[in-house]
Amino acid sequence: MGALLRQRLRRDWLQVLLWILATVLMAYAGYAGVTQSYATHTDRVEVLSAVMANPVIMMFRGLPSGASEGQFLSFEILPWLTMLAALMSTFLAVRHTRGDEEAGRAELVAATPVGRALPTIATIIHGVAANVVLGVLVSLALIGSTLDATGSWLMGATSAATGIAFLGIGLMAAQLMRTSRGANALTVWILVGTFLVNGIGNVAGTPSDDLTRITSSGLVWASPFGWAEQARPYDTDNGWPVLLGLAFGLILAIVAVALQSARDIGEGFVPARPGRVHARPALSTPHALVWRLTHGAIIGWAIGGALTGLLATRLSGLAGQISGQNPAVQQILDKIGKAGNLEETVVSVFFTMMGILAACAAVQIVARARQEEAHGTAESVLAPPVGRVRWLLDYLLVATFAIAIVVAATILAGYAGLAGSEDASSLAQVVTVVGLGQGLAACVFTVLTSLVFVLLPRGTVGIAWGLVLLATLFGLFGPLFGLPEWTTRFSPFSVTPIVANGDVDLRGTWWLVLIVAAGATAGLTLMRRRELQPAG
User: Fold this and answer.
1) What are the pLDDT digits (tens) for 152-198?
2) Distance separating alpha carbons of residues 315 and 421, to the nearest angstrom
3) Best label site of 160, 375, 403, 519, fewest CB within 10 Å?
4) pTM of the shown model
């Protein structure tokens, strides 16, 4: 057991450290953002009242439990703290179970006296320990911000408990699905689904007379995110929902260990879909193969983009009402969007989220090249007269095409949301300009991921996703958390073109074009002399 745990710590220390630091930074900076942007009790009451007036906004926010600084902080950031813990845990679980089976490591370890069950038990211990560290550091960060100790410890405990609940979900998905890609996709869909279920449960709840607190409907108990929010840190400080998350995760982990002993290595309980005997003619080229391997993920990111575009234009009309009740909302949106009137700013903020989705799609596709190389399947593609430069170029082209699909889906959905709007023509210009600009920002991450793949292939996945995470923190959440304005310029998402009162401001467009062109050229040039590194 000691050797297995040391192996996991050595392999995961950087990835887990990045997840934990990002979560702790969000907790610490969140308090600064609340105190700076919503300094008075009246400001916080007005924001809560405006949010409760719109069910769509309520679905994507936390559970209102009062208007004190701690209660408002919990409303603002608890859903995102728990989501980061959940993502860290599911990826960790799949990586050390189904991922090791795909790579052949699990079979080698099982051939030793260790057996088959002990590595999974080591993964459970590893995942629980990572979440405990995350929870403790989140609590200490909040206590260091002078918040109440009881509520701060509960915030950390709910984050850790939600992570452990999704650790169990990830372990179960790894037993059900035959590939790590399928297991990760299943866990992400469960995460998104349970997040929405919790949001619907809050929307269907009963608000208090002063519109600062909601009593959720029973639907929230079907979601681990609902359990976390029902703890109500800095309010009633209920500890028992934390135990519910812990019990759920550990029970699923035990069931996963039992299921593992009932199946063969490499198999899953969900049967594989039979493939065609003969490939379609369209699959005769390398770029067609890349599309075949990644098209499912591209469709998923495009659906997310379409929902973002629809919400962007549908909610822009509500923005005037909210800002009229609380000018602090206008100030926050101005810091993020830097656009003209409030409707233009709201669209810009939502389309920044679209840029993040497009960047995630591109990173996932280019990082797939590293997975193919590590698994040895890239050698089969390169055996015919397909050069290494052409092989990498195909991934870059498909990633760029994926960005175009996400951007197009978002823009078209934005146009649909403008149907019947009085400002349809002016906002349509914002949708087009900002959408195309955020697509350009996503292309930056395409070339950065390719450069990491060429220069540091073993760090491709961790470094590429870390760059997206940092850019998101600086570009989207930095202004909310009161970070200096110059820090946002490190994020490509915050220097894209905007429309201010009908005038287009290109801002850093040409710098982004230069980075994309230089990065793509450098990556493809360096790939010419790079040897394959198939060993994981």
Assistant:
1) 999 999 999 999 999 999 999 999 998 887 888 889 889 988 998 89
2) 11
3) 375
4) 0.77
